[in-house]
């Protein structure tokens, strides 16, 4: 199967309207990147909402809270970082019509995924602790990436660039979903948040995803058309992702044996917040202020 990106939505969002003007580049050059050191442990707190509409009219929604641990196991001399992802806790409020249920456990909790990234987030060496045991994260197969691929390290305010990547999303499901994505980036501004000096950039995303689940008696193939938006806040001294707001629309088509096809749309919105950084280096240790005090 050949996967291709659909840039129409992205192009439309960044076109200059007739009579409009291009945004001038700002005077300040801002830099972004991932700088994890061996032994660093990052705890990310996720607040998310999902809504799903199936073609037959079925609708449901859920509100999620999660903790994701990212450990830097080792680094190389050329700056590549080897990481382990683990979902350490997850709770859901599921809403189906007037019925609500609460779920405080999930099969994805405790499962480990591995990858290496460079300073700009380009991936390699993807894998999992058990790639024969099928499963999916609470956020689904194509939820926003925790550490997006930004591709460009520095730029003046309002600078834009385009990235095209094929990404194996080992952290989202087994079998591994594959996403061919195209992101349009823009440098934003300097900010102060959580008591930290930071810099922001944003992206608009389009892409096509595919995942196939095969067993002895059953094959289910799902194709997705993805449209998304995200805003990233990078800590300027630690060079780590401090916060991300991300939203995606996933229009999916599921094919099952017997010629049955199901279509639907999944909308996901997430706030991803760095809650704590533990490090062998004392000066790098940091903990976010209590959410009760914000």
Structural description of this entry:
The protein is an all-beta fold and 294 residues long. It has one domain (34-280): Lipovitellin-phosvitin complex, beta-sheet shell regions, CATH 2.30.230. Helix content is 2%, strand content 59%. It contains one helix and 17 strands. Strands 2, 3, 4, 5, 6, 7, 10, 12, 13, 14, 15, 16 and 17 form a 13-stranded antiparallel sheet that branches. A two-stranded antiparallel ribbon has the order 1-9. Strand 14 (219-235) and strand 15 form a beta hairpin. The longest helix is centred in the N-terminal third of the chain and has 7 residues, at 8-14.
Low-confidence stretches: 1-14
- CATH top level class name: Mainly Beta
CATH fold naming: Lipovitellin-phosvitin complex, beta-sheet shell regions
CATH architecture: Roll
Distance between the termini: 48 Å
Largest sheet, if any?
13 strands, antiparallel
Regarding quaternary structure, what we see is single chain
Mean pLDDT: 89
Order of helices and strands: HEEEEEEEEEEEEEEEEE
Q: Find the structural class using helix and strand composition.
A: mainly beta
As a whole number of angstroms, the C-alpha radius of gyration is 20 Å
Instruction: Work out the helix count.
Output: 1
Number of domains: 1
Please tell me what the overall shape is: globular
Give me the count of strands.
Answer: 17
> Roughly how much helix do the residues carry, as a percent range?
under 10%
Strand % is over 45%
């Amino acid at each position: 199967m050949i996967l291709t990106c659909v840039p129409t939505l992205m192009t439309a969002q960044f076109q200059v309207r007739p009579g409009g003007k291009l945004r001038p580049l700002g005077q300040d050059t801002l830099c972004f990147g991932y700088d994890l050191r061996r032994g660093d442990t990052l705890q990310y707190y996720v607040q998310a909402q999902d809504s799903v509409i199936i073609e037959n009219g079925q609708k449901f929604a859920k509100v999620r809270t999660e903790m994701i641990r990212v450990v830097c196991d080792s680094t190389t001399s050329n700056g590549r970082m080897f990481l382990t992802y683990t979902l350490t806790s997850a709770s859901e409020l599921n809403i189906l019509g007037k019925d609500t249920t609460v779920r405080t456990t999930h099969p994805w909790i405790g499962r480990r995924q591995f990858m290496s990234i460079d300073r700009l987030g380009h991936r390699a060496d993807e894998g999992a602790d058990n790639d024969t045991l099928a499963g999916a994260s609470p956020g689904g197969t194509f939820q926003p990436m925790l550490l997006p691929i930004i591709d460009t390290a520095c730029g003046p305010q309002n600078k834009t660039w385009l990235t095209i990547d094929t990404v194996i999303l080992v952290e989202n499901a087994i079998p591994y979903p594959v996403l061919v994505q195209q992101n349009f980036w823009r440098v934003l501004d300097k900010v102060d948040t959580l008591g930290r000096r930071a810099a922001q950039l944003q992206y608009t995303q389009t892409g096509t995803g595919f995942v196939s689940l095969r067993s002895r008696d059953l094959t289910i193939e799902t194709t997705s058309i993805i449209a998304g938006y995200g805003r990233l806040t990078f800590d300027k001294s630690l060079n780590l992702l401090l916060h991300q707001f991300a939203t995606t629309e996933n229009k999916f088509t599921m094919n099952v044996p017997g010629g049955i096809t199901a279509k639907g749309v999944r909308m996901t919105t997430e706030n991803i917040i760095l809650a704590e950084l533990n490090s062998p280096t004392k000066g790098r240790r940091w903990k976010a202020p209590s959410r009760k005090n914000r």
